[in-house]
Amino acid sequence: HTGLYPIVSKGMRLIAQGKDPLEGQKHMCGMGNLFHYHSTGFPELDEIMRNPQPLIFVMELLQVGDPMSYHRESWMMEKDEKLQKVPVLHMQGNVLVKQKQFREAASKYKEAVLLLKTVQSREMPGDVDYINLGRMIVPLELNYCQCMLELEEYYEVIEHTTELLEKHKGNEKV
């Protein structure tokens, strides 16, 4: 039975494309968003939703790593772990900027933003925690935009800064 596979697959595909899987969703469960938009945005996943069938997954072991060097992915982390990782990523990004490694720094800032947005998505919009998390996201997004500016990725900068300005009208710092 396919169950939630298309919704999970949609999120993983968006992440692989470097997009925020929660972007544009209303604050509701994944199935609610699917029914609201009538599509996952991927025709093959929509077909699985229309015609459920047993799925068989074939896994291939690509490498065996040292268990002490394991990097936990964000979906495996608890809220506190995510919040503890954000300042570390922010500092790593800052160090990389000083070394003029802008692409790597942008990656650190983006990872931190995604962690915060994931935590924020579990909060009720308008609540104090939701607002505070939003305030934490702004400087990271601005740092990301500065890196993109250095890399001459102007459309990326325009997209993010326009979104920030619309979201934070009246805030002089943004």
From TrEMBL:
The keyword Repeat is assigned to this record: yes
Record keywords: Repeat, TPR repeat
Gene3D superfamilies noted in UniProt: 3.10.50.40, Tetratricopeptide repeat domain
Keyword Ion transport (UniProt): no
Span of the signal peptide: none
Xref: InterPro entries: AIP/AIPL1/TTC9, PPIase_dom_sf, TPR-like_helical_dom_sf
Alphabetical list of PANTHER family matching this protein: ARYL HYDROCARBON RECEPTOR INTERACTING PROTEIN RELATED, PPIASE FKBP-TYPE DOMAIN-CONTAINING PROTEIN
This protein's name: Aryl hydrocarbon receptor interacting protein like 2
Species, as recorded: Goodea atripinnis
Lineage: Eukaryota, Metazoa, Chordata, Craniata, Vertebrata
